[in-house]
Amino acid sequence: MDIRNISDTARLTATYRADESARPDALFRDPLASRLAGEGGRTLRDTAPSVLRSGWPIVTRTKLVDDLIAAAVREGCDRVLNLAAGLDTRPYRLDLPSGLVWVEVDLPELVDEKNAALAAEQPGCKLRRHGLDLRDRNALVGFLDEALGARVQRGSSAPRALVLTEGLLIYLGHRTVADLAHALARPEIHWWITDVTLGGAHSQLASSFEDGPRFDPADGIGFFEEHGWHPLEVENLVVQAGRFRRAPQELWQFAELPQQIPRSNEIPWSGVVRFRQEATIGEV
């Protein structure tokens, strides 16, 4: 499997969503995934190691993130900022309030490709896209100012926003993730959903990328707590994949393991976490 750039990763992820959607017992349905994946995505999947060809980690992660987004919407979320959105299609396939504002951010060339591919499709909520390099901290802060501040009309309540960084952190350095956690600590942002990979599980990913993923905090979830983010749900990917019967059968035994918050990277761990910004806890 030769993943050359971020666009390849996005296409491969879409391919796994398309494969899951075709199952009679699908965990979710994504009718746009096959179109977005294209032949490039299917080629990447077909040349992947056989143990990864089913894409069970991506399928499980997608289902978990879907459910955590739904939880935030039930709790009053009215704005989603999807950073590094890739070829995600949640504004089209999830049951979302029509008044919810969904803002996608990714590299300009990927945003242009997605706009062209989905030009005729109608999302279920208010959708906007921005081309932006998220490694540029000043550009990120400017985007947040615009997305969360300038759009709020006088007399209206401030947004109750959720930030999603699915599949992003493994590409970033430790300092960059710390800067991101700090930049997101704004009163309008109540929740943050992200995937986290630690220890040996993190090391396995390193061989899949030219430079290798870098963010692997020694204190695990404690890294986010130190930056003001309280974990609400911590979902172990292997445990949930076993429960969903999507992991290889030899991993199904882990479905009965208790969910624990990883506070170091000494034990391999990969999962999805929904955080609440500590400053907003208790707000109605």
- How would you sum up the global shape? globular
Measured between the Cα atoms of the first and last residue, the distance is 48 Å
How much strand? 15-25%
CATH topology name, in short, is Rossmann fold
Which structural class matches the secondary elements?
alpha/beta
The number of helical runs is 10
Using only C-alpha atoms, the radius of gyration works out to 18 Å
The name of the CATH superfamily reads Vaccinia Virus protein VP39
Instruction: Quickly name the level 1 CATH class.
Output: Alpha Beta
Described by strand count, sense and barrel closure, the largest sheet is:
7 strands, mixed
Instruction: Provide mean pLDDT, rounded.
Output: 89
Q: Which spans have pLDDT < 50 for at least 5 consecutive residues?
A: 150-155
Q: How would you write the strand order of the largest sheet? A: 3-2-1-4-5-7-6
Share of residues in helices: 25-40%
| Count of discrete domains | 1
CATH architecture: 3-Layer(aba) Sandwich
SSE order: HHHEHEHEHEHEHHEHE
Q: Report the strand count.
A: 7
Verbal overview:
With 284 residues, this protein is α/β, with parallel strands linked by helices. It has a single domain, classed as 3-Layer(aba) Sandwich (Rossmann fold). It contains 10 helices and 7 strands. Strand 2 (101-106), helix 5 and strand 3 (126-131) form a beta-alpha-beta unit.
